[in-house]
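Our platform keeps sequence and structure together, in a single record for each protein. This encoding replaces a full spatial description with a residue-level series of whole-number codes. We quote a single record here, exactly as it is kept in our systems:
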Amino acid sequence: MWDTKRQIIWLAVGLSVGTFFVYSAAYDDDRRFDRDLFIFMEMLLILIILVMFYIYSRKKK
């Protein structure tokens, strides 16, 4: 069971570090930024974080 402080820290760090890597990966070989790829990968990152947050936040019986 996670306490609120730990949840906020993990969400903030996960989003910031994940967004940094997604932003870095959104450049193509010619160093042009691909906005559609960035949006897709950012949505995928958020989905993964939400699923992991749900799994670890469930109450154990």
Observations:
- The chain has one domain: 4-57.
- Residues 27 and 53 are 29 Å apart (CA to CA).
- The chain has a mean pLDDT of 88.
- Helices lie at 4-25, 35-57.
